[in-house]
Amino acid sequence: MSVRPGRSRAVPRDAVHHPLFARCYARFSVSAETRTGMGRVRERLLDGLSGRVIEVGAGNGLNFSHYPGTVSEVVAIEPERVLRQWAVEAALRAQVPVDVAPGAAEALPVKSEAFDAAVVSLVLCSVRDVPRALGELRRVLRPGGEVRFFEHGRDGGRVMSFTQRALDRTLWPPLSGGCHLSREPVAALREAGFTLGPYRRMRMPENGPALPSSYCVLGTAWRPPGDGA
Ligand SMILES: C[S@@+](CC[C@H](N)C(=O)[O-])C[C@H]1O[C@@H](n2cnc3c(N)ncnc32)[C@H](O)[C@@H]1O
């Protein structure tokens, strides 16, 4: 296992502390698995992965049961204490070995180039520093390693984008555990030096009214094979 629990890279252990949001998310996210089709999205997100995987911002561990048997080990980083406890329980039920550890995306407590793949789902909206978090993902992936992402962000036309930005400046982050609505995950991955693979824009939930958080993207990106960063 490559987690280095005692080592802090300038981000404290409980870098994220949103106990109320964590309890709400744990409840809402479980019902969303079937109610909004999130379970099927997680299945597609992780399909075909193999080798050693790092999942960043694992929340309450809802991805864990969807990892295919070709994955040899998952290191799941979760900074929020309440969610991390749920993730530890989910790890016990997973079919592949999952090791849950504290840490933040901006300072991953693992060695460089230690993973074949990295997974982020609904996390880049919440990290404090997106370029730094993606720089860390790039560091811990082996050259040629892949990122699987499912994220929401800015879209939906001018009025919706305006609404997303207005909510980001006011109510949304404090009410939703630091989440932002108007980030652009695909552009951020490209700017961080990843090669974009296929990705698909989709609305969640797929049916019903579009919410400011509905505009999602599911896809793959790679650390370039010759990348010596
Ligand atoms: C909306 S939840 C998504 C949880 C999970 N990935 C999922 O798909 O259900 C956002 C997650 O990002 C985590 N998070 C927030 N800031 C983070 C950071 N700086 N580094 C790593 N994870 C972070 C939160 O603690 C939370 O678990």
Describe the SSE topology.
Elements lengths: L18 H17 L2 H9 L4 E6 L14 E7 L3 H13 L4 E4 L13 E7 L8 H11 E12 L4 H13 L2 H4 L9 H7 L3 E9 L11 E8 L7
Parallel strand pairs: 1-2, 1-4, 2-3, 4-5
Antiparallel strand pairs: 5-7, 6-7
Bound molecules: S-adenosylmethionine.
Task: Report what the structure shows.
By secondary structure, the protein is α/β, with parallel strands linked by helices. It has a single domain (19-222), classed as Rossmann fold (3-Layer(aba) Sandwich). The chain has 7 helices and 7 strands, in the order H-H-E-E-H-E-E-H-E-H-H-H-E-E. The chain has a 7-stranded mixed sheet with strand order 3-2-1-4-5-7-6, sandwiched between helices. It is globular. The protein starts with 18 loop residues before the first helix and ends in a 7-residue tail after the last strand. The mean pLDDT is 92. Bound molecules: S-adenosylmethionine. S-adenosylmethionine (SAM) is lined by residues 15-16, 25, 29, 56-59, 62-63, 78-80, 83, 104-106, 121-123, 126-128, 178.
